[in-house]
Design a protein that fits this description.
single chain; alpha+beta; 4-stranded antiparallel sheet; two-stranded antiparallel ribbon; elongated
Length: 158
């Protein structure tokens, strides 16, 4: 009997990474390892990585990581919120832009309505701007008879 026959083979820790519900792993390597996942060939939307790591004793740990892929242009919808309840005709604006698109000023900002809170805040600022100078018109009683605020007398004739 040799030394190698009596000792069970020691396994090396491994990791297998699966994408979505695929049965074939996209990665099958010994640990530790670095993984680079290229999403450029994946469809936009929800995806899930399932990572299965196996230690030297054959015990397996599983980690699932859901993530979103968004390789296509960014889409902005104004005038219709998610899960909104509407009736009749619904009007909304759609805009899409990508980092690869040439710059166009009309795509620089998404057009949308001004939120109500901005109008309310603006109203408060304007009201304060009117109130503050009007409040300065009140002359304190002790200064009411001074030459600055009192009645002007006619200048003496020369």
């Amino acid at each position: 009997m040799t030394i190698g026959e009596g000792v069970a083979a020691v396994r090396r820790p491994r990791v297998r990474v699966f994408l979505d519900d695929d049965r074939m792993p996209i990665i099958d390597r010994e640990l530790p390892t670095d993984v680079i996942l290229d999403t450029r060939g994946m469809a936009d939307g929800s995806h899930r990585l399932t990572i299965r790591a196996e230690d030297q004793n054959g015990r397996e740990g599983i980690e699932e990581i859901p993530f979103q892929v968004r390789n296509g242009p960014g889409i902005v919808v104004s005038g219709l919120d998610p899960h909104a309840t509407r009736r009749g005709k619904v009007r909304f604006t759609v805009d899409a832009f990508s980092a690869d698109d040439p710059f166009e000023p009309r795509h620089a900002e998404a057009r949308s309505t001004i939120p109500v809170w901005v109008w309310v805040l603006s109203l408060f600022v304007v009201a304060w701007a009117v109130w503050y100078p009007a409040r300065m018109w009140d002359v304190p009683a002790d200064l009411a008879q001074t030459p600055t605020y009192g009645k002007q007398t006619e200048a003496p004739a020369r």
